[in-house]
Amino acid sequence: MPLINEFSTVPTLLRNVVKNIHKPADTFLIHKQGTEWVEISYEETLKKADAVSAYFLEKGIKKGDCLGLMIENSPEYVYYDQGIQQIGVINVSIYPTLSEQEVAYIINDSGIKGILVGNNFLYRKVLKVASNCKALKYIIPAFKDFEKVTIPADVKVEVIAFSDILALKHQVTAAEKAEIEQCRNLVEPNDVSSLIYTSGTTGIPKGVMLTHYNFVKNVEVCLQQIPVIDQTETFLSFLPLSHVFERTATYHVCCAQGCKIAFAQSLELLAKNMGEIRPTVMSCVPRLLERIHDKAIKSGTAAGGTKAKIFTWALETGKNYRVIKEAGNNPGLILSAKKALAEKLVFSKIKEKTGGRLKFMISGGAALPKNVGEFFGDLGIKILEGFGLTETSPVMSVTEYHRQVYGTVGRVIPGIEVGVQDVETKEIINIQTHDTFNEAFECEEGEVIVRGHCVMKGYFNKPAETAEAIDKDMWFHTGDIGRFYKGNLQITDRLKNMIVNAYGKNVYPTPVENIYLKSPKIDQLFLIGDKREFITAIIIPNKETLEETFKLKPDFFDQPETFISEKEIIDWMEVDIKKISNELAKFERIKNFKIKRNPFNINEGEITPTMKVKRRVVEKKYTDAINEMYEEGIETEG
């Protein structure tokens, strides 16, 4: 019997695994307690989920109600989510980094009745807004010593420790089990499973209604497209489960397929955790891969001499081997021997830092620079790129395991249609499906549109915004610009990011920014130039490279001036800008720039929780600096 069928819902996935793949005592979750990694079985997970269900049913929570989570990735997230999902309650996961105002807006907009909080800081944040959240009845801390925090007099909610809920309902009665099972059987595939609020780069966040069918079908077809994922995998989870990408690509895939999930302690400890857990699969974002790439290049070439020559030779050998293999040809005995030597001398050492067992990594959330993807391909580490939005559950396309086209986001998943629409005339240029795939197919670019099982039910309480996003023919408009290239979907930019210069030339920032990001001196780049005569940029330097080059002290980055004024640093950066500019058309080249001392900050509203720069915010905040660049009119073009 297939694990996923037309009647499947999120809460049935784990029970199908226990029934058909694993024994109840087998390990499902792994997390670190103190200095030790602790394994948690399916049986223990389901028992704690039932305790959560029983508690909320006793409190009168019913199908269709909303309960919130504001907690880092952890077993507690899983217990709570599984517990509320199986009684038909809607999961509203809130990014821990959101401001108090944004948290209050989401609690009130969705009508959250209870919220799980993961640490003292988040607990205080909720307490500060609780008096203005009339539907909120329960705050549930999932950490110790929360009692030390004084509850404001005007906050009329029940505060109960998550550990107390689990202990209180540890032995779920037969009657409670029967009620839970009855509730689980009443959950329909088209019921809303989760409200995920968009990050809001341009306005007020909207609650995306994703159904059980959206999630389960997305997992089903992704597993069809990547059939190498099986019950022996160990995923390392570090991207936020409050975001749809990690929720689907790691959590739901593991729930459906019987894989283990290990929770990383933090981003700072990710490298250490990779060595300890030795994952076989990971979901990641391009920035992580870029950092691994940059560190590997720096480590391999910094010493110079023989070591650097061996490193460069190994990469060139890996590239030659990869290109021949990807063309479907046999590399031959001599090149295969060279590749084996490169593996022994160089590649194995880089792979060991990831744990040495990675089958592949799934990259999403932003475009992966083509040269970074090729670098990992040269090492023999597969990076599968995917594309989608919160509104599409999220996956619309993903790289096939056996067919890599760098700079693309893979083949359209089964069961949906993806179109490319002319931005001006609104004529649909082309429509592709999984079944129409042709390795040689290419088309012009336009806005990417999609219809089918992955598309959301709509925006919560926002019919006008839903109608604007999903047209009368049921096409969801992604707002992304793309085309089909070698049969795969290729995303070139965001429609709203498009810069139209004073001469009417269209500049899509993302591909231009990715060209400049080849420089090891640049960590991030923000292009400016809409309705202007030329392109300028705010550049975030690579802190490590900058520190080492100019022997900077830590307090250099604590200075109050937003932008770096030292001429030697500006001249140093200008060398790479001039050199790289020659790869671009004249109207795309950066002709002036400012170097920002520190990265864009999420707490200051400059970037979203998914690390996308808020264009309007940044342009408004740094108006004076931007105007200075145009008044100076200094051309760095060589």
TrEMBL record:
Residues 24-460 form the AMP-dependent synthetase/ligase domain. This is AMP-binding protein. GO terms for molecular function: long-chain fatty acid-CoA ligase activity. Keywords: Fatty acid metabolism, Ligase, Lipid metabolism. SUPFAM superfamilies: Acetyl-CoA synthetase-like. It comes from Pedobacter psychrotolerans. The keyword ATP-binding does not apply. GO terms for cellular component: membrane. InterPro entries: AMP-binding_CS (IPR020845), AMP-dep_synth/lig_dom (IPR000873), ANL_N_sf (IPR042099). It holds the Pfam family AMP-binding_C_3. The lineage of its organism: Bacteria, Pseudomonadati, Bacteroidota, Sphingobacteriia, Sphingobacteriales. CDD domains: VL_LC_FACS_like.
